[in-house]
Model the fold of this input.
Amino acid sequence: MTEIEALQKMVDESRRIVFFGGAGVSTESGIPDFRSVDGLYHQKFDYPPEEILSHGFFVSHTAEFYDFYREKMICLTAMPNAAHRKLAEMEAAGKLSAVITQNIDGLHQMAGSKKVLELHGSIHRNYCRKCGHCFSADEILRSQGIPRCTCGGIIKPDVVLYEESLDSGTIDESVRSIEEADMLIIAGTSLTVYPAASLIHYFRGKYLVLINRDPTPMDDKTSLTLHGKVGEVLSQIKV
Ligand code: NAD
Done:
C-alpha cells in the first residue's frame, strides 16, 4: 500500500477529522513561512522578526512594526491552494469537524471552511485600542505610518504577538475538538511555537497523521508521516 492509499483508508474510516496546521499550509499560496530557508527568519531586517512581532516592540516601535506588518504579514493577493480547498470539501462532506490553524491569513475561510479556530488571530481584524472599532486588512495596508482610528486611538492587529497570550475560548474549543477527534492531521508546521504545538497532545483518537516538508519532533510518533507538500498530498485524497 502506498502512503497515499494508507492516508485514503484512514480518511475513509474516520468521521471526526481535525486538521491542525501552520504556515506551511499557505506556502503553496505564495505566503512564506517563518523557518524554511526562504522563510522570513532567513531574510535580513533591522531587527529579528521575533522581536518585531513582539508586544514590547509593537508598543515601543509602533511605526517600524507597521512597516514590517504591511510589507510581510498582509498578503491580500494570496488565494487558497489545494490543501485549503480539500479541507473545506471534507467539512462540507461531514467528515471534518474543525480546522485549527496557527495562520493569520484567513485562507481557510476564503476556501469555504466554516469551523476555523485561529489560534494566533487574523490580519483581517484590526481593532482601535481606544474605542474598539474594527478595521480591515485593506484599510491598514492603505494607511501610512501608525494607523489611527477617527477617535484618535492607535489600531492594533488582532494577531497574537510574542509575549501575548492566546485567546482562552479558542484554546478550549481547540482542545475539545482534538479530544473528540478520531483522526488528527497535522500539517505544515515545525511544531516549535508554543503553546499552540502542545495542543496536539490532547489527541486520543485512532489515526495521527503528519504531513510536512521537513522533519518535525513528531515524525516517529504518528500512525503515518508523509514528507511532502500538503497541497499535493491532500489533493490526491477523495472525499
Ligand atoms: P514554521 O515556519 O515554523 O514551519 C513551517 C513548516 O512547514 C516547516 O516545517 C516546513 O517544512 C513546512 N512546510 C513549508 N511548506 C510546506 C508545504 N507546502 N507542505 C508541507 N509542509 C510545508 O511555521 P509554524 O509552525 O506555523 O510557526 C510559525 C508561526 O508563524 C505561526 O505561529 C504562524 O502564526 C505564523 N505565520 C503565519 C503565516 C500565515 O498566516 N500564512 C505565515 C508565516 C508565519
The first helix runs from residue 3 to 13. Residues 22-24, 26-28, 31, 33-36, 39, 102-105, 120, 187-190, 192-193, 211-214, 229-230 surround nicotinamide-adenine-dinucleotide (CB under 6 Å). The mean pLDDT is 95. DSSP finds nine helices and nine strands in the chain.
